[in-house]
Amino acid sequence: MAVATLPHSGAHEEVDQLYKETRDLRLQGFLLFLISDCVLFSSFIFAYFYMRNSGQGWPPPGIHRLDVAFAAVNSVILFGSGATMHYALENWKHGNFNRYAMFMIATIVLGLGFLGGQAYEYTNLIVKEHVTWAGSGIFGASFFTLTGMHGFHVSVGVIYLFILLLQSVHGVYTKEKYFGLTAGTLYWHFVDVIWVALFSIFYLV
Amino acid sequence: MSTAAVSHGGGIADHIHPEPQGFIRRYVFSIDHKIIGIQYLITGFVFLVLAGLLAEVIRTQLLHANGGFVSADTYNEVYSVHGSAMVWLVIIPLITGGFGNVIMPLQIGARDVAFPWLNMLSFWIFPVAGLMLFSSFLMGAPVAGWTEYPPMSLQAGAGTSMWAAAIFLVGVSSTLTGINFVVTMFQMRAPGMTFTRMPLFCWAQLATAPLLMIATTALAAALAALFMERQFGVPFYDPTKGGSPIMWQHMFWFYSHPAVYIMILPAFGMISEIIPTFARKPIFGYKMIAFSSMAIALAGFMVWAHHMFTSGLAPYLQLPFMILTFTIAIPTGVKIFSWVATLWGGKIHFTTSMMFAVGFLALFTLGGITGIFLAAVPFDLHVHGTYFVVAHFHYVLVGGSLMGIFAGMYFYFPKMSGRLMSEKIGKWHFWLFFIGFNGTFLPQHWLGMLGMPRRVPTYDPQFTFWNQFSSISSYVMTFAILLFFINILVSLRNGKKAGPNPWGARTLEWQIPSPPHYYNFKHIPTVYGLPYDFSQPLPYKGLEEELTDTPVAVGAH
Ligand code: HEM
Ligand SMILES: [Cu+2]
Question: In this predicted structure, what is the pLDDT of residue B553?
Fold first, then answer.
């Protein structure tokens, strides 16, 4: 089948820009998706502050402050995974496949570690302190909803990174074309940034 | 458009994928933006009929002071689903997914939107969500109006959860459409089509898309919280558990005020195309119209609390919200003046489309003026929750958005189908609609000022005359809409062949056959200027072969 070629045809990049889903297109679309996801979190954060400020002090009577030390360690694990993710992508760009794979696996393991920590924290709250999602007023509602949403994002991220790893093993990406890895990295950093916000509002202030 | 440089005369090389074969791939699960747009239009019009029937139940109930047509409970369900369906299943899908999809990629000289598969997904979520919303009647439909304020929305039957889920899904669909449109307009404009040469309809869609992406997500959060509270008892809005019903109002209006601009900005865009075309004059103030769309979209995020003046909003917040709301009238006024100035001294062709456009100008202006009344706290305290508010938003939504949709249908129907709509039926449609509409909603202004509350199935007998007047006029309006559908069906079969450019319009979509080919353009044209200068030759190159029989070279990698 012939390709319609006209005078003054440009480079192949130009050609693709008109019709195919190129990297630029996807990158922009993905960023916009992250922005709207960010609005979702922001709305719940707004709700959290709204409820927090309308009550009688925070945490509400009968509820202990959250354990900052444990959460801080868990945060370090998550931020560490952000760093390993960064190096994974950098190594991919430089063609070091082995180091890329190593960093990817490290990211996945750290992500799972964070989830494990969160599960531990949830169990502690629910079993020892009897703080639950639906039964502890606005505290339980906002804490479990927001951190649960975040945890869901981390879980999706871990699965996504795993798929990316398999894909790259099977040669889906090349040194020049690796949009999936860029998206995975962006998503992972996004999840990190959200955690900075959640950590500050639940544990610090 | 980083690298796609302007090339001289020939356009740039590109390849065209072969058209899919088979009915299902072509018309049902199509990835062609034109088909998807038409799918949106058809689905939206079906929901218009359903929601319109609900409106007639309301008006029939209000024929008599003590009601009697339906029970009070049913009445609550009817107006709640009517409002929700009109906003989320009719106006928003028609005006963004419908016209946006059909027209925008053609106007910027693209072969499709940026993510055609995503576009198909956006569309198919919408009818599913619509069916869910209407199915809520089977389990006790929502009763707290389209705004679903708690605590009532927490106490009502299972249908309210269904409502929340349905609206959440339409929201997902809107968000995806918004993302798709922004990327399309940023990345896929034809060579030479700079932002300041982009047709005004596209500018309107560009202003709307961020609202779709950002405001809708805020609503999604509010809906999710409502759903969780109703289904799992997680306290967000119930004050007895520390939640706040006012918080719902903030989150809802933070979405729904921008949503009113989602519903009106694309109509502004179509009016900006129709008026210069039929006045045969360049649009007055192109840049001002484009920028005022952006200004309205931006400012729209800062005025939501004007819906909450009676909800115990702190007085020191009332004043800024009042002033900010007033300032929105400035960019809106800029548009109205620009359109009037375009008409001024033009050679006006009163086609049906143009009549709807001029009718839009009159009715939308009236609705905008009552909006300014309502934004004034001292006035709003008296009429909030009365029929005055109902009159206001029907002037902007029916007199504005729906009239814009009708104007757009008469204008673009030939492009979509290749046939003209009947002008004769069209004129009847216009006049009956215009008269019926004003008869229905004008009296509601004074009914509201006299104190008739909205959302109540009965009323004080002193209001009987104007209510009957309103109800009977609403039957006229419904009949006019029936004429519109008859016109579509008749014209599809017997309409005059339109040819590529029946109106002598100058934007890109009119320079190619009607309906356009699957691939839109044989060669992507190059753009050299604004489309609106009627005294100049067309500012495009590379369109020579579009209307000839030269076969297009189809290829794929
Ligand atoms: C000049 C611009 C406008 C101003 C200043 C304005 C102002 C207002 C105010 C203050 C209210 C609240 C009234 C109350 O509940 O007491 C209101 C309600 C409303 N407006 Fe507007 N408005 C404007 C334009 C529009 C447009 C363009 C639309 C839609 C296309 C719109 C749709 C609505 C709707 C749907 C409501 C009623 C919501 C409800 O309570 O159910 N408005 N407007
Ligand atoms: Cu508003």
Answer: 65
Run of H or E including B84: helix B72-84
Q: Which ligand is nearest to the CA of B257?
A: 2
Distance CA A48, CA B247 (A): 10
Residues 6 or more apart whose Cβ sits within 8 Å of residue B275: B283, B339, B342, B343, B354, B357
pLDDT more than 90, % of chain B = 87
Amino acid present at B527: V
DSSP secondary structure code for residue B139 in this structure: G
Peptide bond into B515 cis (omega under 30): yes
Q: Is the pLDDT of residue B222 over 50?
A: yes
Nearest to A50 by CA among B301, B246, B321, B302: B246
How many angstroms does the Cα of residue B391 sit away from the middle of ligand 1? 10
Choose between A172 and A55: higher pLDDT.
Answer: A172
Does pLDDT of B350 surpass 80? yes
Mutate to test the pocket of ligand 1, among B328, B374, B387, B454 (most ligand atoms within 8 A of CB): B374
State how far the Cα of B250 lies from the Cα of B236, in Å rounded to an integer: 13
Residue A60 falls in which region: left (phi positive, over 0), alpha (psi -120 to 50) or beta: beta
Q: What architecture is domain B19-541?
A: Up-down Bundle (1.20)
Torsion of CA A131, A132, A134, A136, to 10 degrees: 0
Helix (H, G, I), strand (E, B), or coil: what is residue B541? strand
pTM over 0.90: yes
Helix orientation angle between B403-417 and B245-279, rounded to the nearest 10 degrees: 60
Domain A65-204 is of which CATH architecture?
Up-down Bundle (1.20)
- Rounded to an integer, what distance in angstroms lies between the CA atom of residue B551 and that of residue B110? 19
Yes or no, beta carbons of A28 and B523 under 8 Å apart: no
- Return the biggest CA–CA distance within chain B: 74
pLDDT of res. B14: 54
Cis peptide before B266 (omega within 30 of 0): no
B386 by DSSP, 3-state: which? strand
First and final CA of chain B: distance in angstroms? 22
Rounded Cα distance between B508 and B105, Å, is 10
Alpha helix stretches (DSSP H) within chain A: 12-19, 23-54, 68-93, 97-123, 137-169, 179-199
Domain boundaries, chain B: 19-541
Please give the structure tokens belonging to residue A54: 């309308």
Whether residue B150 is predicted with pLDDT greater than 90 in this model: the reply is: yes
pLDDT tens per residue, range A52-94: 988 778 888 888 888 899 999 999 999 999 999 999 999 999 9
**How large is the angle between the packed helices B33-61 and B116-135, nearest 10 degrees?**
20
| DSSP structural state of residue B419 | B
B266 burial (CB, 10 Å; 0-12 / 13-18 / 19+) is buried
**What per-residue confidence (pLDDT) applies to A15?**
34
A94's CB contacts (< 8 A; 6+ apart) are none
Distances (CA, A) of B19 to A58, B34, B180, B415: 62, 13, 22, 19
Spatial neighbors of A199 by CB under 8 A, at least 6 apart, are A71, A72, A75
**Left if phi > 0, otherwise alpha if psi is -120 to 50, otherwise beta: which for B552?**
beta
Closest Cα to residue A100, out of A110, A85, A79, A78?
A85
B552 contacts on A by Cβ (under 8 Å): 4
Residues of A in contact with B554 (CB under 8 A): 1-2, 4
Question: In terms of pLDDT, which residue wins out, A167 or A61?
Answer: A167
The CB of B375 under 6 Å from ligand 1? The reply is yes
Mean residue pLDDT across chain A: 87
Q: Which helix (H) or strand (E) holds B527?
A: strand B526-527
Task: Please tell me the distance in Å from A117's CA to the nearest CA on chain B.
Answer: 24
